[in-house]
Amino acid sequence: MAYKTFDFSKFSSIRVGPIAEVFMIEDFDYPQNHTLIGGANNLLIGPNHPPLMKLSKKFDTIKIENNQLIIGASTPGGKVVSFCKKNNIANFEFMAHLPGTVGGMIEMNAGLKEYEIFNHLISCRFKDGVKLKKEIKHGYRFTDIDDVVFEATFEIQEGFKEENIEMFKKMRANQPSNFSAGSFFKNPQGDYAGRLIEAVGLKGHRIGDMAWSEQHSNFLINFGEGTFEEAMELVELAHLRVQKTFSISLENEVIVLNT
Question: Would you please indicate which residues are annotated as catalytic (active-site) residues?
Fold first, then answer.
């Protein structure tokens, strides 16, 4: 089995985590007891993480076949946008401002506001075959996918819109440029996690080199030398204060891997 060493304090988008051996998936054969990490853009990895695995560059592919767009799960969002611009394909402009790979985006139904990756999905290829979109339970930043996505097939509509790139850029203008894993908590129904965190006095609250951002309270940011322990102390503090003040249990959007 082929393993590769990753330093998650350099590889993950939040720049927190240990040095770890990661199994690289080259085909449909992979260990069942490992956790898939994708591009590590929506992850916070602790020192006691489970065994990890990642799709290799073999699944970084994109093609048009039978008037459908077929994308390998390790393909970066930016590459998809470039391909769609070149081929005048609509509805993927939002990926220009989403970090990560297609597989990770599908697993969490990533998007910006009402623009979600599932909107134009047809099917996903798994080890045991293909599942149509209607066979996959999904919703706001959620799917019931618990296996490795290798490839996804999408509808093609003509009309790439350059102006949409600017629109999505403006949507993310209030997000901090510091190292982070994106929005840490899902927005509760009818409310915003950032508003709740600010309302309980945690906007800008810092422990060591980790903090809830002054720019957007739902972003847990790393000033450079932040640790997993500092991050989790802030996460627990937000959970406790929001629960106590509003009787709302915040749900993580970022995946925490630590047993």
Answer: 141, 183, 253
